[in-house]
Amino acid sequence: MKIKYNEETDSLVVNFCEKEIDDSEEIRPGVVADFAIDGTLVSIEVLRASKKIESLDEITYNFGKAS
To answer: Is the pTM of this model over 0.85?
Structure first.
């Protein structure tokens, strides 16, 4: 998984895999989900992220197995 914030475009992208994007869907205003041809979620992009996400500089993530 890769998380990248682009200050210039004010967009946050979370990539879940490296598959080619086949389709995109705006699931909420300014939130776009990208899917591979097999339906796998490839990435989520948040447009105008600084207006939608508090404390972008404090984003944390935790990789662990669910119990």
So the answer is: no
Q: Are 45 and 11 in contact (CB under 8 A)?
A: yes
Among candidates 21, 12, 16, which has minimal Cα distance to 57?
12
Write down the pLDDT at residue 7: 87
Element (H, E) at 49: helix 49-52
Q: What percent of the chain has pLDDT over 70?
A: 87
Tokens (6 digits) for 3: 């998380």
Per the structure, the complete domain to which residue 33 belongs is given by 2-47
Number of domains in the chain: 1
Say if residues 44 and 14 touch (Cβ distance below 8 Å).
Answer: yes
Say if 67 falls within a structural domain. Answer: no
